[in-house]
């Protein structure tokens, strides 16, 4: 896996976009690869700026009913 591939995987992991094999791969790398862990932390830092600008949106009653069922 190239550095660019790892960088993309780390960014998509932070955004919660990964599924299936890619998600499993990211989780394995997080548990065992310090370089990948660093990439994930860097992406978290970059995306935290966006996160800080988002308005809190409390969940509505319909969502709670779906969760309960």
Polypeptide structure, described:
It is a single chain. With 69 residues, the chain is mainly α. It has four helices and no strands. Helices cover 78% and strands 0% of the residues. It has helices at 3-15, 20-32, 34-53, 61-68. The chain starts with a helix and ends with a helix.
What brief labels describe this structure?
mainly alpha, 69 residues, single chain, 78% helix, 4 helices
Shape: extended
Number of helices: 4
Count all strands and give the number: 0
Mean of residue pLDDT? 93
Structural class designation: mainly alpha
Low-confidence segments: none
The radius of gyration computed from the alpha-carbon positions, rounded to a whole number of angstroms, is: 15 Å
- The end-to-end span amounts to 42 Å
Helix content: over 70%
- What is the N-to-C order of secondary-structure elements (H for helix, E for strand)? HHHH
Give the structure's gist in a few sentences:
With 69 residues, the protein is an all-alpha fold. It has helices at residues 3-15, 20-32, 34-53, 61-68.
């Amino acid at each position: 896996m190239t550095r660019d591939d790892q960088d993309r995987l780390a960014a998509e992991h932070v955004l919660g976009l990964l599924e299936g094999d890619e998600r499993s791969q990211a989780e394995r790398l997080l548990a065992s690869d310090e370089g990948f862990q660093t990439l994930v932390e860097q992406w978290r830092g970059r995306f935290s700026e966006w996160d800080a600008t988002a308005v809190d949106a409390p969940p509505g009653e319909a969502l709670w009913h779906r969760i309960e069922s």
